[in-house]
Amino acid sequence: MGKILLLVAIVGFTLVAIADAQSKCKLNKKNVNKKVKQFDDCLEKGYQADESTGCSATGEGRLSKKQKKQCAKVEKAVMACGHACSEPPVDGGWGDYRDWSECSASCGGGTKTRSRTCSSPAPANGGAECEGDAEETEGCNTEPCPVDGGWNNYRDWSECSASCGGGTKTRSRTCSSPAPANGGAECEGDAEETEGCNTEPCPVDGGWSNYGDWSQCSASCAGGTQSRSRTCTNPAPAYGGANCQGQNTESQICNTQVCPPRLPSWPGDFKWSSAGVPDGYTCMRVIEFAEPEGHTWQDNFFCWKNGMADPGLRWSMAGAITGQKCVNIAEDADPHTWGDNFICVPQDSPYNFKWNSAGPLAGLGCIQWLETADPDTWADNYLCHENMEGPVVTEPLPSWPGDFKWSSSGVPDGYTCMRVIEFAEPEGHTWQDNFFCWKNGMADPGLRWSMAGEIAGQKCVNIAEDADPHTWDDNFVCLPADSPYDFQWNSAGPIAGLGCIQWLETADPDTWADNYLCN
């Protein structure tokens, strides 16, 4: 502003000076122009004007004193009339600023500029340039810029949710590189990512399937065993899993019910003995009283294994028993009345024995009957039968006393009988037709008559009448040791509290009327 005021003052002073000079001018306009021309000629010829005029020589030359004096008069005349060799100096002055430029940034602090020109007035005639800057700058849009969020790096993966079989793991990142600010956008995408892991199959430990069906019992009765099995398939072990623990089979006892009795199998369950009753066997005594004592037939037995149903074999030294299947046991070379000795079995017995005194019979199973002390060629005597598995006996034993019967007149119809005889009795006492019987179709009760004392290993009861003198003290009814019957004999009437059956031979006068077999 101070420069502008100075410029005004200079211009004003010059104008005043010119006006003042013109007031002293003695020339008219035409003469002024003539004198100015003369003054310009002087300057061209090297005239040195007064410094105050601002004029200077424009050429080189040598003027005489006269010419210099004449030129001085012309200078004075034209200067009086306001002539100047050049315009006065004009110092420059700033014009108004133009508009601000666009800010260099829309936010966060930019700059803007505006400019002005040194043209009010422009410097002239050697006047000074404008002082100061033609352009000024200032800050703009200083409010913070919006900062869009940026994801930082993912953190480490989490532990897998499963050690095998396919799990998942996760990792996360934060929207902090940079964090959103000043209204900037949140990060795009998910802060967490998930992927599968440990996809290899898990070990599968084996598991047992259900047990299968039980196998067939090894026995139909008396306790067999059966088994069942299972497999390690529920599931089967896989991928290194453990096998099933425990056994793949189990057993149990089965069919523990008592077996129905079975008849002895031929020939395996039978045995001949010439040395008494062997252990584990039940026997029928085989004897011929006519043999000399030295032939030792008193200890000969035909036997079958204990625990079997009774096969119903009975020895008869008095011929075949009526109603039974009997086979003669004879050695033609033996003179001792073997012609009336028989083995008899019930009519419905599955056994069909054959005897041969000349060796075994071809195609049959045969058991040798040998009494080594008898010299009468017994070495080739055999009892034979087809090989046979002993059948199961399903019929019940006879009930006492209803299924039993005494007969002194032979074998009654519908009954199977044990002959009851004492050879010492007189023929007139008719003991040869006396029998103790049980109904047909029943299991054999195993009763056997012995006129030679008790049979070893059996339950025997003495059948005696003290008033009878005919050696009844060695007569016995014998039963297998495991028989359910427990007979008692009384020669003085029935026994109170028991079921009793009278044994009466009316032709025998020796008081048999009060003899009873009880159970």
Your description of this structure?
The chain has helices spanning 2-22, 29-44, 65-80; strands spanning 110-115, 135-140, 167-172, 192-197, 224-229, 249-254, 270-273, 281-285, 301-305, 314-316, 324-328, 342-346, 354-356, 365-368, 382-385, 404-407, 415-419, 435-439, 448-450, 458-462, 476-480, 488-490, 500-502, 516-518. With 519 residues, it is an alpha+beta fold. The model is unreliable at 1-19 (pLDDT under 50).
Helix and strand arrangement:
Layout: H1 2-22, H2 29-44, H3 65-80, E1 110-115, E2 135-140, E3 167-172, E4 192-197, E5 224-229, E6 249-254, E7 270-273, E8 281-285, E9 301-305, E10 314-316, E11 324-328, E12 342-346, E13 354-356, E14 365-368, E15 382-385, E16 404-407, E17 415-419, E18 435-439, E19 448-450, E20 458-462, E21 476-480, E22 488-490, E23 500-502, E24 516-518
Antiparallel strand pairs: 1-2, 3-4, 5-6, 7-9, 8-9, 10-12, 11-12, 13-15, 14-15, 16-18, 17-18, 19-21, 20-21, 22-24, 23-24
Structural class assignment:
alpha+beta
Q: Radius of gyration, Cα only, in angstroms?
A: 81 Å
Task: Provide a count of the helices.
Answer: 3
N- to C-terminal distance: 167 Å
3D shape: rod-shaped
Order of adjacent strands in the largest pleated sheet: 7-9-8
Uncertain ranges = 1-19
Question: Main sheet?
Answer: 3 strands, antiparallel
- Beta strand %: 15-25%
The number of strands is 24
- Return the average pLDDT rounded to an integer: 88
Helical percentage: 10-25%
Order of helices and strands: HHHEEEEEEEEEEEEEEEEEEEEEEEE
